[in-house]
Amino acid sequence: MKDQPSPLRETDDDARKLARVLLRSARHAAIAVLDPETGFPSASRVLVATDIDGTPVILVSQLSAHTRALARDPHASLLTGEPGKGDPLAYPRLTTQCLAEPVERSNAFYERIRTRFLARHTKAKLYIDFPDFLFFRLKPEQASLNGGFGRAYQLDGNDLVIQSAANEAIATEAAETVRDLVERHPDIAEALAIRLKAPESGPWRICGIDSSGFDMISGDFLLRYEFETLAVDANHICSNMSKIAYSIP
């Protein structure tokens, strides 16, 4: 009996970039955990943001079943990628297998995660500080990318994480960097939205930056842009964004 050909393609840079965009452009995702009582997989929907290194972050109530499950067993899978018109299976999606790490309020980077989450989910301000809510960082271990029919790839967790020594410094200056950029170029969000062919919506705003790219949001739309190479500092990020917005096509 002949060996069946592998359905997996060789993972290349294009696949890695698509996987990163699918993960970092998600505002919500389906999360699968293991029910501690039955052992069966249990799926739910969660809001998603990212930490400065691209690690997905969720905010959950301690009263929810998936939170109790993660407290018992940190293994989880996150499904990201939005379908459009027609066959939903024709659209790319990413399943990321993760280890959930709770973020205590006493943690040194708790405020950073809180700020980045609220920049993406402003309505969460109504409950983010309730005592029964907490954050989890979902550390990617490996991932399965389906880029559409016949385009399957296996990725390592490191393919989804931003490996940069500049992460912490950029995180410290992120809010000020965005504020200064907008003060110098009040129309930059609109210019970026036009250049990147963002969906027509209300006003766009920059809701996150990191070494690997930036995020913009307008209503229910979230746009993620990945730089060709990692930025080395906040000035490099601003320079990249200005070139994208204002350079001649």
Automatic annotation (TrEMBL):
What is the superkingdom listed in this entry's lineage? Bacteria
Pfam families, from UniProt?
Answer: CREG_beta-barrel (PF13883)
What residue stretches are annotated with the CREG-like beta-barrel domain?
Answer: 13-156
Q: Which GO terms describe its cellular component?
A: cytoplasm
The family database entries (InterPro entries) matched by this protein are listed as: CREG_beta-barrel, Haem_oxidase_HugZ-like_sf, Split_barrel_FMN-bd
- The protein's name is Pyridoxamine oxidase protein
Taxon lineage: Bacteria, Pseudomonadati, Pseudomonadota, Alphaproteobacteria, Hyphomicrobiales
